[in-house]
Design goal:
two-stranded antiparallel sheet; 273 residues; 32% helix; 9-stranded mixed beta sheet; single chain; Rossmann fold; 7 helices; alpha/beta
């Protein structure tokens, strides 16, 4: 049924509400960005996450994940870890905190800054342990040693994706950057022997996760004597995935960049002019 209007002014207001934003007026470097960092333990993921815009708030799911960042101004850390694995509560506590934070406008404090979720693999393990705790013994096996079922994998995957997507939604609400960090794992093709590096995530999330972030960097470290050189890999390689949608020409960033978000985005900003 055709929509009717009481006046021409009402019609024009409705038409205006259907319009998009002019691409000419959008500066994606200044907008809230989704940034995904993955790599081995000790490759500076958390440290790089706080090199972006301030103030910064970190949801920390790794028990010692934030130890690497040192004393930083305008950085707050909220831990969600299970100190007693027999009484898992980290996941439920995070849900309660996030929903309460939205209700009372807590994230307004970080408008234009950075919000980080560090250690998604530990977040998944917290969900896993909640399921284990609520599961009855199977035969002679205790709930904590019984094999994980496919429905349980589905629950873990769905809830992790929910966390990541809710975090990414903060970009549009508060214009902040959202950084998600996780460890990496490896997959071997038995036919070719090729080894591929992937984010350590349940289900098929290790492949799909790249599609929802504009920036995805793999963190690597090379040791020389007692020194360790950390770098962010920003471009795809046959053995792993990395990308930068903000580098719209593919020629602004180098394959290896210094692990500093502010410097990377300043470089992109200059390159896009």
């Amino acid at each position: 049924m055709p929509k009717t209007f009481k006046s021409e002014e009402e019609k024009q207001e409705f038409l205006k509400s259907l319009m998009g934003v002019s691409a000419y007026d959008i500066d994606p470097v200044e907008e809230g960005k989704g940034i995904f960092l993955y790599g081995k333990s000790g490759t500076g993921k958390t440290k790089m996450a706080v090199t972006g815009r301030r103030p910064c708030f970190i949801y920390e799911f790794d028990i010692d994940g934030a130890h690497s960042i040192g004393r930083e101004k305008d950085v707050e850390i909220k831990y969600f870890v299970d100190s007693d694995p027999t009484k898992p509560s980290a996941y439920n506590r995070w849900v309660e905190h996030f929903e309460s934070a939205l209700d009372v406008g807590f994230f307004e404090r970080f408008k234009g800054g950075t919000i980080v979720a560090d250690g998604t693999n530990s977040f998944e393990m917290s969900i896993h342990m909640c399921l284990r705790e609520n599961k009855k013994s199977i035969g002679s096996m205790s709930p904590k040693t019984a094999a994980t079922t496919q429905p349980e994998y589905n629950v873990i995957t769905i809830n992790t994706w929910d966390m990541v997507n809710r975090m990414l939604g903060l970009r549009f609400m508060y214009g902040c950057d959202v950084v998600v960090c996780t460890h990496e794992t490896y997959q071997k093709d038995e036919a070719t022997g090729r080894i591929t590096t992937l984010p350590l995530m349940y289900g098929q999330s290790d492949h799909k996760v790249f599609g929802i972030f504009s920036e995805a960097y793999r963190m690597v470290g090379e040791r020389s004597g007692n020194s360790l050189k950390i770098e962010a890999l920003t471009k795809v390689d046959p053995s792993f995935t990395a990308k930068s949608r903000l580098d719209n020409t593919g020629k602004i960033l180098n394959f290896r960049e210094e692990p500093n978000l502010t410097k990377i985005f300043n470089k992109i900003r200059e390159g896009r002019k």
